[in-house]
Specification:
Order of helices and strands: HEHHHEEEEHHEHE
CATH superfamily of the largest domain: NADH Oxidase
CATH topology of the largest domain: NADH Oxidase
Strand content: 15-25%
Shape: globular
CATH architecture of the largest domain: 3-Layer(aba) Sandwich
Mean pLDDT: 89
Bound molecules: flavin mononucleotide
Protein name: Nitroreductase domain-containing protein
Low-confidence stretches: none
Oligomer: single chain
Radius of gyration: 21 Å
Pfam family, one: Nitroreductase
Number of domains: 2
Largest sheet: 7 strands, antiparallel
InterPro entries: Bacteriocin_Proc_Enz, Nitroreductase, Nitroreductase-like
GO molecular function, one term: oxidoreductase activity
Strand order of the largest sheet: 1-4-3-2-5-7-6
CATH class of the largest domain: Alpha Beta
Length: about 270
C-alpha cells in the first residue's frame, strides 16, 4: 500500500512539473494579448434564439442555397455563441460562490471531452480570416484574405456563403493535467486495453465528437434564426490548413457554411 502511495506521489510531482511547463507554452502561444491586435467585440446572445425547441428540432435541415449577403454582427454572435459560447458567468458564479478551488468560468454552451475546449473556430468572411475567442466574446483578426473558396471542394455553390466556420482541433489543448493523469492511471491499471496507440485513438475520436456536437448546435441555431447552414467535411484540407498557418498539432476537422437563404438567382452573383 505504501508503495502505491509513493508511486502516486512521484507521478503527481512529475506530472505537475511537466504540465506547468506545457501550460505556460500553450498560454504563451494562444492567449497572448498583442497590444496591436485587432479585436472585434460581438454582442451578447439575443432573444432571437429563444424559440420553441421542438419546432426547431423538427425543421432543422441542411440547406445549400445561400445568398452572398454578409451576416450582421448580432446574427453571427448568436451562431458563434451557440457553437462555443460562455454559458452564463453570473449565474455560475452565484451557484459556485464560496466553493474552494478556481473560480468557475461559466462553462461552455457545447460540451467537450475532459472539458478540453480544444476546438478553435476560424471565421472566414469576405473581409478576412478571424478567430472566435469565446471568453472574450469576439473575433480576433488573423489575415486580410478572403479564403472562403478553400472551404469548398467539388461544390461550386459552397464558395458563396458569407460565413464559413472552420473547426480546428488543437491537439495541444487536449494534453491537460486531468486527462494525462487519467491516461497514466488507465495504462497502469488496465494496461492490456490501454496503450499509447489506444489512448491516441481515443484522443482523436473525442476531438471529432467535440466538433460534431458544435455542428449540431450551429445547425439548430441557424434554423432558429431562419438561416441556411450546412456542415461539410469535403474541402481541400491541406490547402485550407496551409492558408490558416496551422501548426503540426492543429487539424481542420470540419467546415460549416452559414448565411441567409437565397431568395432569387441574383443572390448567386458574386
Ligand atoms: C459530418 C458531416 C459531414 C458532411 N459533409 C458534407 C459535405 O461535405 N457536403 C455537403 O454538401 N453536405 C455535407 N453534410 C450534410 C449532409 O449531407 C446532410 O446532413 C444529410 O444529407 C442529411 O440532411 P439534413 O442535414 O438536411 O438532415 C455533412 C454532414 C455531416 C454531419
Amino acid at each position: 500500500m505504501d508503495d502505491v502511495k509513493r508511486l502516486f506521489r512521484e507521478w503527481r510531482v512529475d506530472l505537475e512539473e511537466r504540465f506547468e511547463a506545457l501550460n505556460a507554452r500553450i498560454e504563451a502561444r494562444f492567449e497572448r494579448r498583442d497590444p496591436n491586435e485587432i479585436f472585434r467585440a460581438l454582442p451578447a446572445p439575443s432573444d432571437a434564439l429563444s424559440v420553441p425547441m421542438k419546432a426547431v428540432m423538427a425543421s432543422r435541415h441542411s440547406e445549400r442555397s445561400f445568398s452572398n449577403e454578409p451576416l450582421p454582427d448580432p446574427v453571427l454572435a448568436d451562431i458563434l455563441w451557440a457553437a462555443d459560447g460562455v454559458r452564463d458567468i453570473e449565474d455560475a458564479q452565484k451557484r459556485t460562490k464560496g466553493r474552494v478551488g478556481r473560480e468557475y468560468d461559466g462553462g461552455r454552451t457545447t460540451p467537450t471531452s475532459f472539458d478540453w475546449r480544444e476546438t478553435e473556430i476560424y471565421v472566414l468572411k469576405a473581409n478576412g480570416i478571424w478567430r472566435w475567442v469565446p471568453e472574450r466574446r469576439g473575433l480576433l483578426f488573423c489575415a486580410l484574405t478572403d479564403i472562403r473558396h478553400l472551404a469548398a471542394y467539388m461544390q461550386p455553390a459552397m464558395t458563396l456563403p458569407p460565413v464559413q466556420l472552420v473547426y480546428v482541433s488543437n491537439l495541444a489543448k487536449t494534453r491537460t493535467r486531468v486527462s494525462e493523469i487519467a491516461e497514466q492511471l488507465m495504462m497502469k491499471f488496465d494496461g492490456e486495453v490501454w496503450n499509447d496507440e489506444a489512448i491516441e485513438e481515443l484522443r482523436i475520436r473525442n476531438t471529432h465528437l467535440n466538433v460534431g456536437v458544435k455542428l449540431e448546435a450551429v445547425s439548430l441555431a441557424a434554423e432558429a434564426l431562419g438561416l441556411a447552414s450546412v456542415a461539410r467535411t469535403l474541402f481541400p484540407t491541406k490547402k485550407l490548413e496551409e492558408a490558416l498557418h496551422l501548426g503540426p498539432d492543429e487539424h481542420v476537422t470540419a467546415v460549416q457554411s452559414v448565411g441567409y437563404k437565397a431568395k432569387s438567382f441574383l443572390d448567386h452573383i458574386r
